[in-house]
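User: Fold this one for me? It's tRNA-uridine aminocarboxypropyltransferase.
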Amino acid sequence: CSRPQKVCLCPFLPVHPLKVSTCLYIIQHPAEESRVLRTVPLLAACLPPDKCKILVGRRFSEDRYPELATVCRNPNTLILYPGAEATNLEEVAVMSPSSSIMIIIDGTWSQAKDIFYKNSLFRLPKQVQLKTNHSSQYVIRTQPTNTCLSTLECAAIALTIMEKNKSIQETILHPLQALCSFQLQHGAQIHHSKEHLLKNGLYDKPMPKNKRKLRRMELLVNNVKI
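Assistant: Here's what I get for tRNA-uridine aminocarboxypropyltransferase.
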């Protein structure tokens, strides 16, 4: 895991990569590469190299990414991105058990939205979302809402559903739990979601002047899905 021995995460990774039939394509925003505590490397360490492929960038054209274009045109490919057009993954897994490729966008919500809507390739696969009330265990990074999950957590739940194997989620989340535990032991603080902070009067940053951002905060406080 390339971390100092004192906080090494290798003992918390599976001894052998998980055997899965689903191949993940992680579309990573360039800003995520520079984050020290990102989760995608932990996800990749849990899976065989041919089952977790990471592509970094903002724009993905068919000319520059012919393999990705082929993947997006594959009828068995799914893209994990919530929205009105998305079907719950559990339903898709029951109806179409043959699906074996999933695309996940890695970045902040605004970065993911930008990538999804500005790349026409990503609107070719069937759009799916997770129906879950789980709170994120990635407690050392602030999430927009109480139920927003990290890329690793989304992948763990999605693979568990696709592979019909509950142990997958536990195995993939194990190194994330260890990472957060180490960081908290060395001075990190638990980060509540922005939703939690706003509702409890704990948000200590200046309120945005941008009307769109201010409206988003109002929706969070009023339990409106955004």
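One thing worth pointing out: The first strand starts at residue 23 and ends at 28.
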